[in-house]
Amino acid sequence: MSPTQFSLFFITNRFTLTFLIFIFVASYLIV
Question: Where are the bilayer-spanning segments (predicted)?
């Protein structure tokens, strides 16, 4: 795995994690 692929994977993974946390907080606030 090249460094470019690794950084891209890390950024995508982080974005997904942030997105999931955002949805969790939003649903908590709505309820």
Answer: 6-30
What Rg value do the Cα atoms of the chain yield, rounded? 13
CA distance 5 to 26: 31
- Between vectors from CA 28 to CA 27 and to CA 30, what angle results, nearest 5°? 60
13-27 pLDDT tens trace? 999 999 999 999 999
Supply the pTM of this predicted model: 0.57
Structure tokens that stand for 1 in this block: 């795995």
